[in-house]
Amino acid sequence: MIEVPAFELSLAVNGRRRTVTIEPFHTLLDVLRDDLGLTGSKACCLVGECGACTVMLNGRSVDACLVLAAEADGGDVVTVEGLARDGELSRVQRAFLETGAAQCGFCIPGQLVSAHALLTTTPHPTRAEVEEGLAGNYCRCACYQQIIAAVLLAAETGKKPEAIANPELTLPDQAATPDASVAPQ
Q: Which of the following CATH numbers is that of domain 91-172: 1.10.10.60, 3.40.50.2300, 3.30.300.110, 1.10.150.120?
């Protein structure tokens, strides 16, 4: 058996330079969750189908389960943990809360990062562009209408998905009580 040596990986994660020793077969998702303790990106399908592990790598949204960690060496990664700045929610995060888009929460990290990536490249998307931009993210609670509404709301608040100053929220009634006919519990 041929033994492959461990590899020292250096990358910026949420603006902070990080170095870890990895095995050549580790994925970016493995590094984020296991080595760096950033568990916002979810390990779900592990084949790039669900979007729960979506992160931004060098300005592009990617499924972290499909990226070998070595491919990210020297790169810049933004995870869901990096969307808020100085303790303030990003406008995308706030919009998700305001529209009741965050139900069980499992898909939300990937949805948030995908929405952030979309609004970075397309600051004022149409509904069709939002649907296309989030097409790789599945929501098992079927909250697609609220998620789309959240992205459109975030687009209304500015040109870039940057942090907002007022974190106080008023959640609409729809967020407190899911419609059992739409999302049976």
A: 1.10.150.120
Angstrom distance (rounded) from CA 80 to CA 147: 16
Cβ atoms 100, 172 nearer than 8 A: yes
How many residues does this entry show for the chain? 185
Asked if 19 contacts 8 with a C-beta cutoff of 8 angstroms, the reply is yes
Q: Is the dihedral of CA 142, 43, 45, 137 positive or negative?
A: positive
Q: What is the maximum span of the chain, computed from C-alpha positions, in angstroms? A: 60
Task: Tokens for 120, please give them.
Answer: 């970075």
- Could you tell me which of 73, 97, 93 has the C-alpha nearest to residue 82? 93
Tokens of 4: 């492959």
What value does the mean pLDDT of the chain take?
87
Residue type, 28: L
Rg (CA), the chain: 17
Task: Convert the pLDDT of each residue in 118-140 to its tens digit.
Answer: 999 999 999 999 999 999 999 99
Q: Which residue(s) pair with 9 in the sheet?
A: 20
Domain ranges of the chain: 8-82, 91-172
Beta bridge partners of 55: 62
